[in-house]
Amino acid sequence: MDRMGIAMDKITEANCDMAVISKSENIFYLAGFKPSARAFLVLFDEPVLMVNSMDMAEAENKTSVDLFEFKKLEDVKERIGSLSPESVIFEPSISLGTFEKLKGSFNFIVKDIIGDLRIIKERAEIDNIERALKIAEKSFMKTDVEGVEVEVAAELEYHMKVNGSKRPAFDTIVASGARSSNPHAEVSFNKIQTPIILDWGATWEGYSSDTTRTLVTQKHEEEILDILLDAQREGVKTAKPGVKASYIDKVVRNIISEYGYGDNFIHSTGHGIGLEVHEPPSLSADEDIKLEKNMIVTIEPGIYIKGKYGIRIEDMILIRKNPKILNRLPSIIKL
Questions:
Q1: Is the pLDDT of residue 1 over 70?
Q2: Beta carbons within 10 angstroms of residue 66's beta carbon
Q3: How far apart are CA 30 and CA 3, in angstroms?
């Protein structure tokens, strides 16, 4: 797929003649280089990637797009102005301060034209995500879940790094005992208790994985996990091309509610994943996007009993006629 060409078509469809791409993941998607500092990919007749001196050498090795080194934002504004655009697209993620320094006499709109392209994965992207997931799961199997929470998280992240992940996809969550009732609890120096929620992800070639497992020991914990697995199974069955993302959330949420725990499922059912851990579509009640073949989403139902415990299960799903669970790790793991 000619990503750059499709992006240029999107600009034309928006009745504009230029786009200034400033989000690092979108620059990487189009140019093959992810800047470490502020950068701008200007899409016009001939695309130009504007980077600062720290990124220039790396950019020269990674991208075939013409490069321009800037020292201050005024340099970028002058370069944009020299092309005499009539109407320019800026991304929603650009900061107001940066936008104020770049805007000129041209008309402008704020629109995300690259996110729509990224939402459906190419074969190479799927391979990268599966490789990241393989690293994450292999690393989990090498991790001893004992001691204190922060030690478990550190060991898991260590194994991911030595297995090929340059960095974790996000800060690893290890939350045990009563702390597991907080869906996004930070790791603590508390001694491991049960149940134990572990939420972790690796990266490969810029792409991320995201998995959650809850280690249980008590019968009531196992019963809650069985409810979540029932809900997740139905969600996966429903996750096919043409189905609204909100409907997946409804299916999963209804099953949990039938068991009497609807009020204890306090977050959305899942999200897209790729160059970012959280991408569209959101599997939530207000998401109207219809799923399409080769999207990758997570399905992660959870039940949280405030101040007592929480249980969550999360797998990554490749959308197709017969939805494919990409995870190989067992859903039920006991200490």
A1: no
A2: 11
A3: 6
